[in-house]
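Re: beginner question about structure tokens

> Can someone show what the tokenized structure looks like for a real chain? I only ever see the sequence side.

Sure, here's an example I had lying around. Input first:
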Amino acid sequence: MTVQINYKANFVKKYSQNLVLFVDDKINISPLKKQISKGEYTYISDLLYIKDKKKEILTYDISSKRKVILVVIKKKLTASEFESLGAKFYEHFKDSKQLNFTIDTDTNLSLIKNFIAYFLHGLRLKSYKFEKYKSKKEKKIISINLIGKNKPNQIDQVKFKAIEEGAFFARDLVSEPGNVLHPDEYAKRIIKLKKLGLKIKVYDEKKCKKLGMNALLGVGQGSIRGSYLVTMEWNGAKNNSRPLAFVGKGVCFDTGGYSLKPAKFMEDMTYDMAGSATVVGLMKNLALRKAKVNAVGVVGLVENMVSGNAQRPGDIVKSYSGQTIEILNTDAEGRLVLADALTFTEKKYKPKFIIDLATLTGAIIVSLGSEYAGLFSNDDKLSKQLLETGEKVEEKLWRMPLHKNFDKLINSKNADMQNINYVGGAGSTTAAQFLQRFILNKTPWAHLDIAGMAFSKYGGALNSGGATSYGVRLLNKLIEDYYE
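And the corresponding structure tokens:
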């Protein structure tokens, strides 16, 4: 559904649209006097005594084509709560026949600065749908006119639009089927972001082989598609400060390789590249809003398929770091892609920190469900910043343990390490412990296991089901609050 917002409306013709007003729990509607007739005002005043005041959104029909809508603010709301309120507004009216609204931003309430910007941001995020392959697409348009003094300024409009475009781009990528968004096509779509000012470099199989990225290449060798490492640089700081680095797992489709996944739900493995989509969406957002920071995004793009040339259980590969890995399970492939990407990022860019994102383990879903992403880190300061930011934007994280005692579970008799713990238990932690071995120079690092957060069957506060773009808003806010 398309959402159109007119920020420049100074007034709207009376009786022409649904009127929206923000009120407190006492429901003082006196500001309505300037917008509706005396008779309509009396009518609504009388109805207030019999309407369920426990609801957040109260609707009064004053004609067959016009409503008065009261959005009830019962307490001091945070920014994320205003976003959720905007999403609830969308849910409330998405099936309505009358989708023209005038929002009066003037209010006597003591609300946070830019409350209307957050409200509209939540509404738009919730309105996203992936209908590219539907023969009959929904053509509904929600038209919103803003009047009053609290309209978002130009800076806020650019900022929120950039976040939305970054998030929607990430959702689009995750939603594409595997026959369309294979690594070759994915790399092409990233290249198109050059027009926004991003410096992009694609390392194809030949270049990756020359660099010694055999862990990444091993995952993709069973596919007829190429395997790639793609870097995206944004230089928005005035100085030459070290960049912030974001690394994403981009397994465009994951059959599990010879350690084949069960057929049931394998179709969902198109979203095994959601970590990379978050990184790409974040970089697009930073470029659109011209963020005053130096940042680099690195994604490893592969397809894990079964063929006569596919990697076998028992194979041993030498990673970009020089460390050797015994492949005991070809379905533990994401950590192999990230291993080379992490060492490459640290060595080439010498960043202030590295944050990687991946739909890495089913074990994290067993631990945290779809409420929290797992956070593993070698740095308390970075962890604290991420945890606090996650609470602010309702993209929550829960810190999980790392400890040298877990290393014995991934040590190999035949190589430096093995890619899976066959003893059992601590599946997410041993995966993170594995990744930590590829941070060679003690760079502050955090690993976000987003397997339970990247895709939602039932929808969340700010999405209507499907790809969630988890991490785009989280990392953007982290940069805004601590690094710009």
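Each token stands for a local structural state, so reading them left to right follows the chain. The first strand starts at residue 2 and ends at 6.
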